[in-house]
Write a structure and sequence with these properties.
Layout: E1 2-6, H1 9-18, E2 29-33, H2 35-46, E3 49-54, H3 60-72, E4 79-84, H4 87-101, E5 107-111, E6 116-119, E7 124-129, E8 143-146, H5 154-161, E9 172-177, H6 185-196, E10 201-206, H7 217-226, H8 231-236, E11 263-264, E12 278-284, E13 291-298, E14 303-311, H9 316-334, E15 339-344, H10 351-355, E16 370-371, H11 376-388, E17 392-395, H12 399-404, H13 425-438, H14 455-459
Parallel strand pairs: 3-9, 3-10, 4-7, 4-8, 8-9, 11-17, 12-15, 14-17, 15-16
Antiparallel strand pairs: 1-2, 5-6, 6-7, 12-13, 13-14
Helix pairs in contact: 3-4, 11-13
Length: about 475
């Protein structure tokens, strides 16, 4: 833990310079930061986009404000933006914390009508609600900082990236917030893209336990109220990316099969089947939404999704060629086999086009698709039951599916509501295939909401009682 108590003007100026802040303080200043917050500030110095994701009370808005002072307090004037998802949040939380931390002597002026603060070094800091991204289109910025980034739309983040173009600026973006689900854009950017581009994106995660300035009972109360191991506890105490509230398939366990989970490897596929395998594929058509294809095999008791192809945009011919390439690899892995069935949504308009598809040489590369029943809730409950009885597995060759399944959820907090149509393409595929192949193999009923069950309960999902 780092606790910096600055009691004199000279000490305040020296400390701020050590943080990279330039300017003159004329009053005593109290600044605090924790080890994870220090790591976040270091990331902000070294990469273009940084995120600080944490549980309740992990000091997110505090470090956002401190980093904004670092970004705006340099030796030359800059223009930055601090944003929050709603105006109410901006006014009640983000803005208040900034003014609590920023010494009044640093402020040259404050336009409440325009929501702009002017620092004495010439820096302008614009405070904005992020509810409408188009209102940001005319800005030119050196940097931006976002509060509650998990509630900010991806389009807004991209819009702000496009605003970082002032000549000579530091051109940095940073954000803080609670973790959203694994299908949220923040996971894609600061986890997935960060692995491929660590010089561009970085993530620091912090739990509620790490903030030693909180009351001693704070984390203990949350442990009791939320239940250790629950989805709510994982997200809002441990600061981990987990399923959303209202998730349908909370009994999906992302751990490996050997640890009681639903994730398997390719060499485990055939040994898990006890009877003659039936091979199939299932497709969810899309253009603006991705074209998704999942391949599965079932013996009538267990169904395994072993490969995926998910691609946004592209012509049907291109998708058919990619499907063909995947299936050539499947023959090499599993030996010669025939795709017995190809299912899709019953109202997909591209079935005839995909059936008649040919390559550039006129060779047929299409296939016939069988329409499935459009019974959304029935298929959701069926998949829920298959997970509960450990009769549905997904291989590690389906990373997008493994991310989307835990976050497949209702539009609201009521699980019986229709699904939210957001990054659900592979989940739709799973529903179609399970309803077509597994509907008549078992009885299934919805079990009670498991979103607040303990980790032990969820790991032993084969023991869940069904109503």
């Amino acid at each position: 833990m780092n606790l910096i108590r600055v009691q004199t003007q000279a000490a305040a100026n020296a400390y701020l310079r050590s943080l990279g802040v330039r300017g003159q303080s004329t009053q005593p200043l109290l600044l605090t930061y924790l080890p994870k917050q220090k790591a976040f500030m270091s990331d902000c110095d070294n990469v273009r986009y940084s995120a600080y994701i944490g549980g309740f009370g992990s000091g997110k808005t505090h470090i956002l404000s401190l980093q904004a002072l670092r970004a705006g307090g340099g030796p030359t004037a800059s223009r930055g933006l601090i944003g929050a998802p709603t105006y109410k949040m901006l006014e009640d939380t983000t803005q208040k914390k900034f003014f609590d931390i920023c010494p009044s002597s640093w402020i040259a002026g404050w336009s409440k009508s325009k929501n702009i603060v002017f620092l004495r070094n010439g820096t302008e800091i614009i405070f904005r609600s992020l509810e409408r991204s188009e209102r940001l289109s005319g800005l030119e910025l050196d940097w931006f900082g976002l509060d509650e980034i998990g509630e900010v739309k991806e389009a807004t983040f991209k819009m702000l990236q496009g605003r970082l173009r002032r000549p000579g600026g530091i051109h940095k973006g940073f954000g803080v917030g609670n973790p959203a689900g694994t299908t949220h854009w923040t996971y894609e950017y600061f986890v997935e893209l960060a692995k491929k581009h660590p010089d561009v994106y970085r993530l620091v995660q912090a739990s509620s336990y790490e903030n030693t300035f909180l009351p001693k009972h704070f984390a203990e109360d949350m442990d009791i109220s939320f239940g250790k191991g629950s989805v709510y506890h994982l997200r809002y105490v441990l600061g981990e990316f987990a399923a959303f509230e209202g998730a349908y398939w909370v009994n999906f366990n992302p751990l490996p099969y050997s640890d009681g989970g639903h994730k398997i490897t390719m060499d485990q596929v055939l040994p898990l089947l006890k009877h003659t395998p039936h091979w199939g594929k299932v497709i969810d058509f899309g253009f603006e939404h991705p074209f998704a294809c999942l391949w599965y095999v079932t013996d009538g008791r267990t169904i395994i999704f072993f490969d995926e192809y998910v691609q946004k945009h592209g012509l049907i011919q291109y998708h058919c060629l990619q499907v063909q390439e995947h299936e050539k690899r499947h023959q090499e892995i599993f030996g010669a086999h025939v795709i017995n069935s190809a299912y899709t949504d019953h109202d997909a308009v591209c079935r005839a086009e995909i059936s008649a598809c040919k390559d550039a040489q006129g060779k047929a590369i299409g296939f016939d698709c069988i329409p499935t029943d459009k019974n959304v809730m029935e298929s959701i409950l069926l998949v829920q039951t298959l997970f509960g009885k450990r009769r549905l597995f997904i291989t590690d060759q389906c990373p997008i599916t493994l991310r989307q399944v835990p976050s497949y959820r209702a539009k609201g907090d009521i699980i019986g509501e229709e699904p939210l149509k957001e990054k659900d393409d592979t989940c739709d595929c799973i529903r179609y295939a399970c309803l077509a192949e597994m509907k008549h193999t078992m009885t299934y009923h919805r079990y009670s909401d498991a979103s607040y069950q303990t980790a032990e309960d969820l790991h032993n999902i084969s023991n869940i009682d069904f109503d």
